[in-house]
Amino acid sequence: MDESIVRKITKSSKRKSFFHFTRVRNLPSMAYLDALYSTGKADEALARQIRTERQEIQIHGHAFVANAHLRIADQVMDAGMTHERFHAYLDRHVFLWPTQSDGLKMLEMYTRRERHEDFAILQLDAQSLLKDFYDRIKLSKYDSGSSPRYPARCSYKKSLRMFLPLDRFGQAMEKDVPTKPSEIKEVLVEEQITGLSRYLQAVYSKETGDIPGNWSRLARSLADFKNGSTL
C-alpha cells in the first residue's frame, strides 16, 4: 500500500469523509450485516440483467433494494462495451461519493424521481477505508452509472478503462481517469465493505427514529446534511 496516495486524496478538509447514498428501508439490513453489499454480492441474479425498475429482495429477513439502472445513451458507450457488461461491472461494486456536495446531488436527483421514498446518507471515514480496502478500490472521474445530458458532446466513452485502481492514482495520465483528488467523482469498492461500524461517522435521515438502534448515537438529521453541517 502506498500511504502517500491515501494522504493525497484525503488532504483537503472537504475530503476527509466518503458518503454512501441509500434508502431508509435498506438501513436494517446494513446494520444487521454490519456491511455494505454490492448488488451482485446481495444477489448474483440481480447483476445478470438490466433493471428497468428497482427490485427488492430479503437478506436474513431484512429488505435490500437494488436501484434501477439509469438509461445510458448508446453513443456514449465504447465500441467494445455492451450495456449488459458495463452494468454488471457496476453491480459488483459499492459506490461512495467523495464529497458532501457529490452526495447531495445524488440525494436531490433521487428525491425528485421518487418523491414517496425516504433516503439516507452514511458518512464514512475516508482515510481508514482507503487503507483497509486499498486493493479493492477504484476511482472514477465521471458519474459512471448515468448518461451525460448531451451525449453528442460527451468527451469520453463508457468502458471499464474509466475505473482506475487506487494504487495507480497519480501515475496514470489518461484523459478518462482522475489525475488529482478534485477529479475523483466516485469511489468504488469491490463486492462489499465489511466491518461497517468501524468507519461509520454519521447516519443522516429525515426521521432519526428510522436509524437502527445500534447506530442511534450516530443519528443526524438529513437537514444537517443538506445544509452542509457534516462532521
Can you describe what's shown?
The protein has one domain (17-220). Helices cover 23% and strands 24% of the residues. The protein contains 7 helices and 12 strands. The strands form 4 sheets. The protein has a 4-stranded mixed β-sheet. The longest helix has 14 residues, at 100-113. It has 231 residues and is an alpha+beta fold. The chain starts with a helix and ends in a 5-residue tail after the last helix.
What are its keywords?
about 25% helix, about 230 residues, alpha+beta, four-stranded antiparallel β-sheet, about 25% strand, four-stranded mixed β-sheet, globular
Which descriptor suits the 3D outline? globular
- Rg, rounded, reads 17 Å
Mean pLDDT: 91
Q: Domains counted in the coordinates: how many?
A: 1
Query: How many strands, which pairing sense, and closed or not: the largest β-sheet?
Result: 4 strands, mixed
Helix content: 10-25%
Q: How large a portion of the residues is in β-strands, by DSSP E?
A: 15-25%
- Distance from first to last alpha carbon: 27 Å
Protein name: DUF4433 domain-containing protein
InterPro entries: DUF7002
Pfam families: DUF7002 (PF22531)
Organism: Paenibacillus sacheonensis
